[in-house]
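Researcher: Predict the fold of Rhomboid family intramembrane serine protease.
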Amino acid sequence: MYNESFSDSFKRGYRALPVAIRTLITLNVAVFILQVLLGIFSSQYSNSLIRTFAFYPDWQTALFQPWRMFTYMFLHGGAFHLIFNMLWLWWMGRAVEEHLGPRTFSVIYLAAGLGGALLDVVAAPLLGYNPVIGASGAVYGIMVSFAMLFPTMPIMLLLLPPIQARYVVAGLIALDMLLLGSSDGTARIVHLAGAGIGYLMMKRMQQGYDLSKWILPIEQFWYRLKGTYEESQSKPRNKNMHAVSDVEIIDETEQDELDTILEKIAEKGYDGLTKEEKKKLFELSKKE
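Model: Structure tokens for Rhomboid family intramembrane serine protease follow.
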């Protein structure tokens, strides 16, 4: 392992990412690479891509081109815009997905991004009808979810002592509120809306609502396209078993070990794990 090449190390780390985060990061990076390649040939091509899939905050766009409320989340205005969004998604999103499951995680992410677009329609008469791109609104929803799940988790920021997650996220939200009237107020309202939707979705889930059921029809449609849906539905189910919609089934003993490790991460952070615990967490994260 110590002599492996950079590419092998990268592949191993990439495969170890939870499935939803891995998919989202891949899509965002792939679309940004397409933006860059189109820009190399001509800035008109890159601008055309943005004009076609960005979200314009007016009711006509929301009503007649609703797909823009999703596609805008995968476009970015520059490398730093993409990097910061993906870093926040990776830093905080991994623990959220491992705790909630990929379906619930995906519902919160997409709902936060959608909520950001819809609130921007309402706020546009005051803030301006500026096109919106970027995953920030969706990422803010995940950041709030992280702060609600792990409020005292220490976060290391540049040149600052460890700060609890709830204070880091609250500080970012407060900063957006202060800058709401600035030239990029449109982006700020999307951030705030994403954070608000993330909070509401988490509260709804804590009340016992199954968020994952919103993603199941899409998953079933995908299985039908692959021709595997009927096979999975034809197996008889024990009447004494409960239906589990948003977990990956692993051995009960391994589940206990995973729960213990996640609890330790919540209390002491990832660096508080022993080498054996980190290795075990890596092994369990690869099981699908």
